[in-house]
Request: fold
Amino acid sequence: MRIELATYEEIEKLYTKYKKFNTHLLEEPRKVFPYIGIMDVYNRVLTEQEAQDLLGYEQHHSKYGTRFLCALTQIYHTDNEVFVHFNKKGLSKEQFKFILGSLNRMEASIFRKMFASNKGIYKIGDEEALKFLVNLSVEELYFSNFFFPSLDTVFIGNYDLCFPVYSKTKEGFEKCREIIERNGLFIRQ
Reply:
């Protein structure tokens, strides 16, 4: 599993392209990303009752999580460089311990090492690393922002398998949509 700190040059390149790494905190995201959607299991917004029913459905993540892993892995293979932003602020010791307790020994070691540094931008070096990091979001253990520079697109880990997708270009957005739909998922806008 290869995850390494992004170099200064890589961070500068990302900053020039995206302007902010905490994409989910943008007040007016359409000023930066004209193409926005949500990668989801459903092609529509659920009714209040459907959403309520889903909250009690514990198998939702295990049933659909592999689709998210497969889609993002296929997107990873279309891009030569993929980066992840870890927002390390606001994680309590109790939350940190809970996450470590939910991981296997190797994953816990890697997660611990990532938090040993104050820096938060990492380059994903292989598919195994991507799957580990995406799975943290799928399992709602720890949410990250995934940057796919050649597609000008960012995926944000989020609750209930509803990952926001922000893209600067129509081409990048449509390429992601095509891969996502091949995996039985949708991008709702």
Observations:
- The first strand starts at residue 3 and ends at 5.
- The longest helix spans residues 60-78.
- The radius of gyration is 16 Å.
- The chain has a mean pLDDT of 91.
